[in-house]
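Bit of a strange request maybe. I'm writing a small parser for structure token strings and I need a real example to test against, not something I typed by hand. Could someone generate the tokens for this chain?
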Amino acid sequence: MFDSAALVVIDVQAGFDDPRLGRRSNPECEGNVAALIEAWRAADRPIVFVRHDSLEDGSPLASGAPGNAFKDAVSGEPDLLVVKHVHSAFYGRPNLDGWLQDLGIGQVVICGIQTNVCCETTARMASDLGYETTFVLDATCTFDTAGPDGSVVLAEDLMRVTAASLHGEFATVVNTADLI
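Reply from user aminoacidic:
Good idea to test on real output. This should exercise your parser:
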């Protein structure tokens, strides 16, 4: 089913360990990302690493900052490295959509950080561009977030809402063990 699917690993960067980001969900995220990368390599399937080079002053993800580096879970060389400054990997460089099209890849499997931000945005756009999209929920994580009224939405709730919003409409939501 996933013989030609590209694994898209989004923003698994050291800067997301910054304590200013607050409480985080899913401590198994990085281990699951590493398992996906290992499975994709073993099957000789295409792997894309996406790195967020923040343009915000003081961001732990700024180019050249220690937090810009990939975490240890993201090992080896990808088939493609996409660098972006916004939420969707499809707005990075080099052009992810063009690369996938050139290789005849019609399926993407998405994992990384943050569940409800860059991962969800990329999944929605992948679907809109016509890709069969799989979202590996337990290979993502996010952070508690204050809503517009100041109340805190727990990271786990954000993950569940992302899964409910994506599944069946934009993507098939799965977990790592079931996928590999």
